[in-house]
Amino acid sequence: MNIHTLIMEGQMHQAVFKLENIMNLEREIYQEIYRIEEEKSEAIIKKSGKIIEELSVSQEKLLGKIESLEHERIKLMESYKKSHKLHPPHGDVTLQDVIDSTDSKTAFSLKEAGIELKRILLKVKSIQDLNSRLIKDNMEFYDILISGLKNSSTLRSGYGRDGKEQGRVFNPVLFNIKA
Hints:
With 179 residues, the chain is mainly alpha-helical. It has helices spanning 3-45, 49-83, 95-100, 104-152; strands at residues 154-155, 169-170.
């Protein structure tokens, strides 16, 4: 082995280590997002808008961190693509392309990090779908409730033969339905 090959292998391992580290950080953040989504489920069931809002603010901060890590990951993948002269048929370098270009020990570790990240992403998506359904159900409930309130408000309207007002609204419900 010549010195150039050793340097290239060292750079490859360093890039792969950084990539694995980024993926592990993302996994940890997504685990926190999952925990927040679980708290949101409880808040939705309890109809606690203030708690939902607070949790959403926390979640937005975490998503900002994810975005930053994703930019770093993309730059790292592009750098890896150039330095290792990878030319995947689909254009962008995928995790599988990196795995295929490394030794088996490194490939195994990187693949495990990818599997764990994907696992938590699927859990987050699942609970977000559940929360969306819960919110939709709550909105439908309130729409039905509002319709019932509107229907229970009656109006004896019109004027008598003498031109005087005959009736008033009974059980008035005055509020904006979209509020």
